[in-house]
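Known limitations

Files may contain more than one protein. Parsers should not assume a single record per file. Below, a two-record file is shown to illustrate correct handling: read the sequence, read the token line, then continue until end of file.
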Amino acid sequence: MSDILKIIHKYFKRQPELSHHQLQALLTRAMQHQVLSKEEGSMMRRILNLADTPISSIMIPKSQMVCLEASATMGQIVDAFLQWGFSRLPVYDTDQDNIIGIIHVKELLRFWHRSAKNIRAVEFIRLPNYFPQTMKVAQALSEFQKRNISIAITIDEYGIPSGMITTEDLVEQIVGELYDEYNVELRQYRLMENGHYLVDAGIPLDKFQELFKLNMESQAHTLAGYILEKLQRIPLPGEKFRIHDLDCAVEEGSPSKLKKLAILDKRT
């Protein structure tokens, strides 16, 4: 992953003399003359497009972030790292509109020999890196490489945290998007042979309600946001729960992001 970041940083560290359109045309010719394979050319095209993609479109939204309170005890900190499997967690004071730092799991070792009874999360934090959510993915990749970081907090136009971005989220725009290009088109939901719906967790909540004829009172904008609002945590792959009269199971996801759910509507 670090090798990919180095290549991209080198590519974007100078303003290209050719226009975006000219570079795209050169890539097309390079593939036509087999200077680049189709896969290589497509990946380069993805890299070029990163210059126009804002990180707000790929960030983990604040509603799905796993965070620690500044007053969390050593026991609570350890439990959180064990439960979610992360190496870093954001820390907030009062609420998630006030992210004050990042805790690295390695920091726990510095205090392990001491009595941990009175230690709180605020004692472990490193100052966070803040990126405006309008920053382009290409620039964010370059900044991650220059600053040697793997996580940053995104902020809106008022300076309020809106989410976070990680190295994995950024690199996925090249590797993950390339995979999508050569496979089935992404859809927000589809009916499977077993009668279950496979639903993208990012589906707008109003569209989800329309699909299953539900009336759900919520401030959330997506299904993932609604689930986090109700469970107060991100469910893990394989976990089952209910939404109204729907049986739900997490088909795809990670400790930091809910991706796809299998949903059975027993009302039909």
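...continuing to the second record:
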Amino acid sequence: MKQHLRDLLSNNVPPSEDILREVEEILVIPRQKLFETESEIRKLKNQLKFLESKREDIQKSIDEYRPITIPIRRIPPDVLAEIFYHCLPSHRNPILSESEAPVLLTRVCSSWRSLALSSPCLWARVHITFNDEYIGPYNIRVFKLRCDVVKDWLTRSGHCPLLISFHHTTRLTGLHYGFI
């Protein structure tokens, strides 16, 4: 940059018409280069957008086959059943909950459901809780449904030795034990 133009940048003096023409002449080439560069950027952005879309389509195509190739599918059922067994809580009996093994394992896919339901050792331990919420005429139906779940659980255990822990509130009466 020429010194006389640099001086104008350091003060607030209005430029003359000659200076304005000089600056406009100086800026012709940079403005043209800027225009060309922005045009090239637009083209490259469009090309990038196209390539990203193409990549996404290719990835979708690959993802379609991914479930077939995942290693867990190649594990033999007896080994997978053993892994399932090790998913059970080790410090207590499993509870009747969809959020932990063995029930959780039945919710993954149909083959895991079938394997888990046919693995008696998964169902040989259970912690049964009957709380106050199941007491009362309105909740007897819920209480009976919970008892049915326990019966199904224990039936799945087959001939495996059972380990059952049981908790109930002191408000349970002998009448309710008839459901157990």
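Parsers that stop after the first record will miss the second one. For reference, the second record is described as follows. The longest strand covers residues 125-130.
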